[in-house]
Amino acid sequence: MEHRHGLLRIHVHRGVNLAKRDVRSSDPYIIFRMGKQKLKTRVVKKNVNPEWDEDLTLSVEDTSLPVKLLEIYPCRLWNEWMTNRASICPYTCGLDDKMGDAEFQIGPFIQALRMKLNELPSGTIITRVQPSRDNCLSGESCIVWTEGKVVQNLVLRLRNVESGEVELQLQWIDIPGSKGL
User: Fold this and answer.
1) Hey, how many other C-beta atoms are within 10 angstroms of the C-beta on 39?
2) What is each CA distance from 76 to 34, 79, 101, 135, in whole angstroms?
3) Strand bridging mode 67-74 / 96-104
């Protein structure tokens, strides 16, 4: 644990207007990567506006690394072919096709945590992060003091796809015996 700063909890709220990749619909899930770590949400079947409402936790060893999202869905046509066990697969979509990607830096969030703020009124905005070419934010992201914790709400616009956004919330978890911030 001596190399860890702490844990980053990512609350994956939902996806909005995700790209449709199958004739019927999509079965989206998200893979998060930070350094060598990789975490995956559950699959939400037949939905281009999925509600994950799921918490994933990354161990943070290097606060300068970005968190990368790869939005992917399992190809339903491939799955149907596998179920029916036909001799030749007529579909070329493979197991998973991308539905876009995004990334975000945790630097501004870490800076807010390092301020060691206490006893602020809940809802106090600590700082604002503006969308730019260097991030995938679809609008301003506020880092807020909420119920004794620093949280950041983000809406990320997916790249390399015709449409789609993902709504997340970040929280920090201190680990006893870690490097800390």
Assistant:
1) 16
2) 28, 5, 20, 31
3) antiparallel
Residue 106's nearest CA partner among 145, 72, 73, 62 is 62
Find, among 94, 131, 115, the residue nearest to 172 by Cα: 115
Distance CA 111, CA 102 (A): 22
pLDDT tens string 123-163: 999 999 999 988 899 999 999 999 989 999 999 999 989 89
Contact 171, 3 (CB under 8 A): no
Q: Quick check: 8 pLDDT over 60?
A: yes
**Burial class of residue 64 in the structure, from the number of CB atoms within 10 Å of its CB (0-12 exposed, 13-18 middle, 19+ buried):** exposed
Q: How many CB atoms sit inside 10 A of residue 91's CB?
A: 12
Closest to 93 (Cα-Cα) out of 170, 27, 152: 27
Write the single-letter amino acid at 160: N
Residues 180 and 61 sit within 8 Å (Cβ to Cβ) = no
CB atoms within 10 A of CB 8: 21
Residue 29: C-alpha distances to residues 56, 59, 69, 80 (Å): 13, 21, 10, 18
For residue 50, report the phi and psi dihedrals to the nearest 5 degrees: -70, 145
Token pair in block for residue 64 = 């300068």
